[in-house]
Amino acid sequence: MFKLTRPLVVLDLETTGTWIEKDRIVEIGMIKYHPDGTVEEYARRINPGMHIPEGVIRIHGITDDDVKDKPSFKEIAKETISFMDGCDLAGFNVERFDLPILEREFHGAGIRLDWQQRNIYDAQRIYHYHERRDLKAAYKFYCAKELESAHSALDDARATMEILSTQVVKYAGEGKEIESLQAFREETSGKYFDKDRKFGWWNGELYPTFGKHRYKSGLKELAQKERPYLEWILGSDFSDKIKTLIRNALKGEFPKGPS
Q1: What are the angstrom distances between the C-alpha of 65 and each of 49, 167, 226?
Q2: How far is 176 from 168, CA to CA, in rounded Å?
Q3: What mean pLDDT value characterizes the chain?
Q4: CA atoms within 13 A on the CB side of 18
Q5: What one-character-per-residue DSSP string does 36-103 give?
Q6: Which has the closest alpha carbon to 74: 97, 47, 101, 42?
Q7: Is CB count within 10 Å lower at the N or C end of the chain?
């Protein structure tokens, strides 16, 4: 392993979802590497105080029953921050996901995590910085060919069709239709109600992702307590889909959340 001059904690979280502002931690795992070569490990499952959605369970396999008797994050916050004390931090996508969620959870426990003041080593950021992710790289990965005439519009279009054909076979199976790839688009876009991402689903309810109620109050609560705010949306520059959503909400009608 590489030489360390300071202790390094490599961490990973499993959560109830991907909304940094709303979702909760269900498991934390950390490994501390010391400059002298010693290694410590810390792993805890956590009761998030909310239902873990089925789609998320399919990813990490942690169910409500698995964590119903586990401590809350607030109960383990002091031992968690103590394990991280004086250490640099590392992980995969930690700067955009794990550390912001940890910071919010610590804040709820009355503890401050100033991770921006530490050395952070994000393997995903380094990977994306050094490895190409353009059409030429995708063509080589999926089709095992070099795209010699990249940025010729017709050649790029032909290469894209080859990539899509390979993706259908690789991810859906031989002889499947291209529509099978829509599942991957729906998986990533299902978090939001509309294409402009003005409202997003969290725990089966819609929340605004803008303005003074951003992530704070669900649509049902807004319809009960903040009707003037919803009426303001109707008179402002929002899409027809959003205005229909708001009109229905004011009548007490709400869409069913994604499964």
Answers
A1: 12, 37, 36
A2: 7
A3: 90
A4: 14
A5: TS-EEEEEEE---SSPPPHHHHHHH---HHHHTTSPPHHHHHHHHHHHHTT-EEEESSIIIIIHHHHH
A6: 47
A7: N
